[in-house]
Amino acid sequence: MKFGVVPLSEARGSVLAHSVRLPDGTMRKGIVLGAAEIARLSAGNVATVVVAELDEDDVNEDVAAQRVAEALAGQGLEAGAASTGRVNFHSRTEGLLVLDASRIHAANSVHEGLTIATLLPDSIVRAGQMLATIKIIPYAVSAAALEAVLAAVRGGVSAMGVHPWRGISMGLVMTRTPDTRESVLAKMRQTVIKRLNPLKGALAGEQVVAHDEESVAGALRQQLLGPDRPDVLLVSGAAATVDRADVVPAAIVGAGGRVLHAGMPVDPGNLLVLGEIPRGGASVPVVGIPTCARSPKLNGFDFVLRRLAAGVGVSGKDIMAMGVGGLLTEIESRPMPRDQRT
Fold first, then answer.
1. Cβ(163)–Cβ(92) under 8 Å?
2. I want to staple 96 with a disulfide (CB 3.0 to 4.6 A). Which of 168, 230, 308, 310 is the partner?
3. What is the pTM of this model?
4. Which residues, 6+ apart, have CB-to-CB distance to 288 below 8 Å?
5. CATH code linked to domain 2-53
């Protein structure tokens, strides 16, 4: 694409790059200059204009934006019509925005004029909310650059989509020691319920047992076989989990399951445990809740809970990718603050 100032006599067929004020009104940028437009500019005593002249292999901004939108579109998204090189995406439903950030980064690395901006991965979104915008900055881009962007975003699974809340049920096992106060148990119960409500989840059952491996394993087995049959099991230990051999992860193994990950690069939330226990032909996720989750403030447990509530799998690899943006606001009631200087 060529860009610059040309005599009006040579501007026919080009795209007007900047708006021009005329006695009869403003001629807006982006218009293709035909005979009528040239005559109007001439009548306004315009001698030169700034234009964009498309090469043979150039793709118009709106066409390019629409093609990128089609390649990006996934479940739960609504793409608007292309205008001025832009296509906006809105959510069709409330739920969780799931992104393949690596593919978005790859697309944005192809050409400075082809851009994709999104909300953060795993954002909670409402119906009708804008999630992303595609903007083609020049009036046209080369076909080669466009094809490279399309190759970057395409894949077996869409690079962007909204997963609606599934309305999952959760079973809660809380442990206690002889000195555990009822108020501590009540606070954890209340914060779990408050976290579930906006995610359309519900607490199906609850047990309080002693803080030892055998008691917790028994409670997990009972939850799995009971009439409520929760979709996810939560374990809140009276003491924090500091090792895979500690009570909560050991109890998951003792109940016939396995520990997928112990710890996470999110603070508060470092001491979360993720596991699973077989039931029938599937596996039920088990989350060992960090003690910081007694506070309603955002912590690593929320990151995992959102994905489970939206039916999005959580693996050890997913957890290890949560570190960027994982430094969250400190919880005032924390027994040992992370920054001793404050």
1. no
2. 310
3. 0.88
4. 235, 237, 241, 248, 249, 252, 271, 272, 273, 274, 275
5. 3.90.105.10
pLDDT in tens, 155-178: 888 999 999 999 999 999 999 999
Give Cβ neighbours of residue 221 (< 8 Å, ≥ 6 apart): 255, 256
Kindly state the tokens that stand for 161: 């989509």
Specify the pLDDT at position 226: 78
DSSP strands (E only) in 104-215: 114-118, 123-125, 130-136, 140-142, 160-164, 169-176, 202-210
**Alpha helices (H) in 131-181, listed in sequence order:** 143-153
Q: CATH fold of 169-312, please?
A: Molybdenum Cofactor Biosythetic Enzyme; Chain A (3.40.980)
Considering the domain delimited by 58-164, tell me its CATH architecture: Alpha-Beta Complex (3.90)
Model confidence over 90-119: pLDDT tens digits?
999 999 999 999 999 999 999 999 999 999
Q: d(Cα 18, Cα 16) in Å, to the nearest integer?
A: 6
Number of residues assigned to the chain: 342
**What is the side-by-side strand order in the sheet with 202-210?**
202-210, 169-176, 232-236, 282-289, 273-279, 258-262
